[in-house]
Amino acid sequence: MLIKLLLLAFSGGPTQFSSFFPNTIAKKLIYNVIFATLFEIHVKELRNFNIDIYKLKNGIHHYEFDVDQEFFDFFNFDLINSGKGKAILILDKTETFIDVTFKFEGTIGLVCDRSLETFDYEVNNEHKIMFKYGDHDEEISDEIMVIDRNTQRLNVAQYIYEFIVLAVPMKKLHPRFVEEMEEDEEIAEADTILIYSSAEKEEEKEEPGEEDIDPRWKLLKQFKENNNNN
Predict the structure, then answer these.
(1) I need a surface site. Which of 114, 175, 185, 229 has the fewest CB within 10 A?
(2) Are residues 111 and 198 in the same domain?
(3) Nearest-5° angle of CA 156, CA 160, CA 163?
(4) If DSSP codes are grouped into helix, strand and coil, which group holds residue 76?
């Protein structure tokens, strides 16, 4: 009964939560307990993506993770509707850092920007991250992370998902529209070459070479040069 009461209060939002627990201290304590419990449930869903690095020997290690619909549902990002594939990680551990290569091969479900239809998009990409040991956790850049040297395990789910998102094209088109776009690009490129060639010819006419000068103007030029020398 108490659990049902807590879930009801939590799901009702801050207003309903306050009505159940008017005491501020008790409210914060219970709210934190519920949040931690729900967070732990979500974390358990991704525990298969944990890599125990504390006792891991130095050297190269290989890992494979199956990425399915539950994986994408966990992150609940509208950009990707569905997906399935395999993430392959190559981990190179040393005394001072861990170099990880992320590879993903599979398909993701996208929504076409033109027709709003869902279609499968093939992904095959590779990225690298270096995890350097330090006194605290800090993100130096997209490719360098500082982790506490006492870190027991590394959960790679978030990194795998982010790299999959990076593979999503800026313009999401259903396969049947891709050929049309490529044809339009070829036509545009041909027009550009034609315009460029025409411009070159016009420029040549405006600035003719020595051999293209009218013989009469050539004789006049020599005449003027001779007069100046005299």
Answers:
(1) 229
(2) no
(3) 140
(4) coil
